[in-house]
Amino acid sequence: MTSKRTIKILLASVWALLVITLLGFAIKLLQDFVSTPEQAAAPPAVIQPPPKPEKREVILYFSDADASSLLQEKRSISLGAGIQSDAAGIANELIRGPQLENLSPTIPPDTRLINAYFIGDTLVLDFSQELQKNHTGGSAGELTTIYSIVNSMTENLRGVKKVQILVEGLEIETLAGHLDLSRPLHPDVKWMKKLPRTNSTS
Hints:
The chain contains 4 helices and 7 strands, in the order αββαββααβββ. It is of the alpha/beta class.
C-alpha cells in the first residue's frame, strides 16, 4: 500500500513538474514576445508629384515645298510630364505647322491628338478623323504626313522605336491609299534632310 502511494506521489510530482516546466516555457515565450521591440512601422507611402515640364529643344520634321523630302525645324517646347503629354506636345507643334518659310505643313490643321500610350517600344497615337478626312491625298503627301509624325516622335521621345497611328481609336489600312498603317512603323531616314539653317523658338 505504501509502495503504491509512493508511486502515485512520484507520478503526481513528475506531472506537476512537467506542467510547471511547460507553463514556465509558455510564460517565457510570452515575455519574449511582449518585450521584443515592435518592428518599426513602414513609413507611409510618399506620393511623388508629377514630373515638372521643362523647356526642351526638339526636332520636328515638315515637308519641303514639293513634298519630296522632310526637313527639320528646331523648336523649344515643354516636355517631361509623361509620354502622353510629351507626345501631345510634339503632335500639337506638328499640327501648328512650320515656322520657316521654306517648309510646308504635313498634318491638316483641324486634326487633334485624342490619346497616346506606350506598348513596349511602340508609341500608339490616336488622332481625330480630320487626319484622314481632310488630308490632301497623293502618295507623296501621305508619306510626308506619316513620316513627319513617326520621325518626329522617335527623334524626341526616349524609348520610342516604332509608331502606330490610329484614327478615332481604330486601326486604318491606309491614310490616303498608299502606305500600310495596319502595323507600327519605324522611322524612315531616307525622307529626312537637314536644312542648312534651323531655328529655335520659344
